[in-house]
Here is the input.
Amino acid sequence: MTKPGAALLALALLTAGAQAANEPSLTQLMEQLERLEQRDQERQRQLEALQQELRDARQAQARTQETVTERVVGERRPAAPVEVSQGPQRAPLDRESYRTRARALGDGAVTSGTAFNPAVSVIMDGVYAAQSRREIESPEGFEGHDHGHGHGGHDGHGGIERGFNLRETEITFTASIDNYFDALVMLGVEGVSNVEIEEAYLVTNSLPAGWQVKFGRFLSDIGYINKQHLHDWDFADRTLVNEFLFGDHGLQETGVQVSWVAPTETYTRFGIEVLQGETSGVAQYEGDEEFTLVTLLPDFAIDPVTGQPVPVASGPNRIRWRDDLGLRNKSGPRLFTGFVTIAPDLGHDHAIQLGASGGFSRAWQNVVTHSSGRVETWDGDAWFAGVDAVYKYDAGRSFGAGNVVLQGEYFYREIDADYVSRSFSNFGTLTPTAAGGVADVFSGTAKQDSFYVQGLYGIAPRWQAGLRTEGLGLRNRTLEPDRADNAFERAGTSWRHSGVLTFRPTEFSMLRAQLNYSDFDTDEHGSVWSFLLQYNMSLGVHGAHSF
Here is the structure.
């Protein structure tokens, strides 16, 4: 090889070696990738913190806003522009639930048939349940409570079984119909097959002077927790006061609600509701109906002319017994409620909300049949009243850390009822029985109440712990008849104590563990420990979980 060729070859080898030395190794590439991922995670944390600060700032601005009423003597004020509201009126400390958010459309011009009308959300809720006893009876005085749904507790009632439960899937459609009405339809799928309409209502959004009208099927605004859906609860199960005094779905009715927010510096809202009256707890209704009993008599048949049984030799014959139960017919509306909510301004970090509510039902009826052919009826009316209070402290830290929520409610209920126990005689007539030698016909008043108190604390960002104590039947004169004494029985108080730990990884998911100790007044007089694991996941357009 010539000298110039050798020199060129040496130069090429040196250049290649330098390039190889400058290229990063596999380890260096992995280290660079890890540093980039850490930077991205830090930026994501900063972004989430800024988003939370923005939400906190907006909430603080809303709390500190004051209502100013302009009073100009002799000057006519111009008409205010029509504003599209975001669903039903909501008190300052009420949860901004999914159901309250009718979605604004496009650039503010409300039209129907757009891609965002209606907005759709799906919320999935599941529970794993374990308990120390296989079967738990309902509390004394509340045995007639309907436990066919999955909204309540799991201690042998409320439809939650031991093991895994797909408790409920909620499908919600919300929309601004036009400049005058918002709409909501919420379907609840309990388990895998039971579908029902939980809410379906229209609400006005442009009435003047703080007025609003809601009509359709909805959860009543009595109390604090009644208007909340399952995904709004701070505990995995419904409170005893709401489940046993008002029913598995709370006070859920069809009717109309009229509310008014007063033009005062202190938030004050008044409302009345006129409802059909079908809720089992305070407005159960049967109507005038006929009781039918089918029996087999061995040697009788009904004479087609006289209508009376006559002896025959053809063997057993099927005989149908019929008679009227004598319950009063009362057309709806049968239930009337009223409520007031006040939220004094306590400054930037503290907030309180106080409420009072009550109602009267023109009819409360119940029918219980027995295999012996005996039938019991209750026919009367009912009323209830209660108070509620919520206090919240905002620590100003990220994702709810340090926040405090204290909450409680108390309700009292009376049912005045005429009781009759009857059985068939004379092959077609219901006649009062006489267990104590006197006809089982008497009247009385059931007086029952319940309360709960709970507290929650943000132990860390996204983590919340809480305690709850509940009492049911502190005063417990029941509707259970003592036929020997012709009077309604008395029963004791039932208690439940709960602890909960909740983790919200994001705004769209929630995981929860809860431990209950229940000491119900039952025939067995036994206490029970129970444990719940709950998940709640949100899909689609919806309001974010509050942190």
